[in-house]
Specification:
Layout (H helix, E strand, L loop, with lengths): L23 H4 L5 E6 L10 E2 L2 E2 L4 H18 L7 H12 L4 H10 L5 E5 L16 H15 L7 E3 L7 H9 L7 E4 L10 H12 L4 E4 L12 E8 L5 E8 L8 H8 L5 H6 L5 E4 L4 H8 L5 H11 L3 E4 L10 H10 L1 H6 E2 L13 H30 L9
Parallel strand pairs: 1-4, 5-6, 6-7, 7-10, 10-11, 11-12
Antiparallel strand pairs: 2-3, 8-9
The structure holds zinc ion.
Zinc ion (ZN) binds next to loops.
Length: 402
């Protein structure tokens, strides 16, 4: 029987109560930096089927098959390790790790010792035509184990919340109580829901009150629901500036030709009604609307990035992370310039990598080093040390700083 109640009383208002005691020293160390957007998952967490692609169910058979694909991709273009096929092989190798512990080991190896990571989960059970190899509740258990027993001083996991999951309130409550092992919430609207979905609005009300940070996917439209029929309900702001219900139905969707679906669901405009209702919510727009939108801004075209800037100007706790943009060297200068020129953007931009999704674009160590060099020490200090602490640990609801 699904539980319809969020156990609000069991969730602390103090974010530090959700931090493992072993991490507290690291948080107080000024040298500590943060990767606010990374993924510690392997291919056990992805759906079994995507269109015509279907991997074997049994672990070893799947592992061997991905291994073979990697070998083929690597030899497609001999003598080079940086062609597109080699990059895909490099990406597959991360996902093909035996457990999330091995993926975490790899991620940690790229960073200085004093680094804290916030791995973001995905609940792929409801927006896809097929279920993941490992059910979501088991994935949650694996992440709790990683946080409690393996890396208590290194990771602050974010629980994925899908409002179409019938156990969504129970999952949220259990994750965010002190012993739940989770620190924040991850939203992925392109899986087929609006941020202003009724279930999510109830959750955001608690997140605002209990100072729980929320990160939403925003940009990069290729991964989205593969369902052919979706009905979404939520709220929008009408022309009089008032909340108005939305009820939309999408039919006959073609999962391979519907970049539009990603575009519709990832539009930051959909968050307008959420921020209107919960103006102190700590919200991070992941990928800062995405590389394509930054290219548009560079060419002086209308861009969703501008809407995020507007939100930052209007709401004190709106942030955006540069994850995945670190692979896009042509926009480094524009990012740096925006941060330098505007105090609001400077104090709300967060460093994140999108490890290891970003490795489809090339070598992780190289792109990270290039990005850091392009930003310079002063900006990196701000976006990887000062701002993440504000996003994670401040208590805007009770008007006090951690
Ligand atoms: Zn990501």
């Amino acid at each position: 029987m699904p539980n319809n109640i969020i156990e609000v009383d069991k969730i602390s208002e103090n974010p530090l109560d959700r931090v493992h005691p072993k991490m507290k020293e690291l948080i107080n160390d000024d040298e500590t930096s943060y990767d606010i957007h990374c993924h510690i998952m392997n291919f056990e967490s992805v759906p079994k089927k995507y269109g015509f692609m279907k991997l074997p169910t049994e672990y070893q058979a799947k592992h061997n098959m991905v291994d073979k694909i990697e070998d083929i991709l690597h030899i497609l273009k001999k003598d080079t390790e940086t062609d597109f096929a080699s990059n895909i092989a490099y990406f597959l190798d991360f996902g093909n790790q035996k457990s999330i512990k091995e993926v975490a080991d790899k991620l940690i190896s790229y960073y200085p010792e004093k680094t804290i990571f916030t791995p973001l989960m995905m609940d792929m059970e409801w927006g896809w035509e097929s279920k993941p190899f490992v059910p979501y509740d088991k994935q949650i258990e694996n992440m709790q184990n990683l946080r409690n027993n393996v890396f208590p001083d290194k990771i602050l996991p974010f629980i994925a919340i899908d409002p179409n999951n019938p156990n969504v309130f129970e999952i949220f409550s259990n994750a965010l109580i002190n012993s739940g092992g989770f620190f924040g919430v991850k939203i992925y609207p392109a899986l087929g829901y609006l941020p202003s979905d009724n279930n999510l609005m109830k959750i955001f009300e608690v997140c605002e009150k209990k100072n729980i940070p929320v990160t939403t996917h925003c940009g990069g439209n290729s991964i989205h629901t593969t369902k052919q029929f979706i009905r979404v309900q939520g709220q929008e702001i009408d022309t009089n500036g008032e909340l108005e219900p939305i009820d939309k139905t999408f039919t006959h969707l073609n999962p391979f030709a519907s970049k539009k679906i990603g575009e519709f669901f990832n539009d930051p405009k959909n968050w307008e009604s959420v921020l209107y209702s919960f103006p102190k919510l700590k919200l991070n727009f992941a990928h800062f609307a995405g590389g394509d939108e930054w290219e548009k801004m560079k060419n002086n075209e209308t861009s969703q990035v501008a809407r995020i800037f507007d939100f930052m100007a209007k709401y004190d706790n709106v942030f955006a992370d540069v994850s995945s943009l670190i692979s896009n060297r042509t926009i480094y200068n524009l990012i740096r310039k925006k941060i330098e020129d505007n105090e609001k953007i400077r104090s709300r931009t967060l460093y994140g990598s999108d490890f290891y999704m970003v490795t489809t674009a090339g070598n992780f160590r190289l792109m990270k080093a290039d990005f850091i060099a392009a930003m310079g020490d002063d900006i990196m200090q701000q976006i990887s040390k000062i701002n993440p602490k504000q996003f994670l640990f401040s208590k805007p609801y009770s008007n006090t700083i951690s």
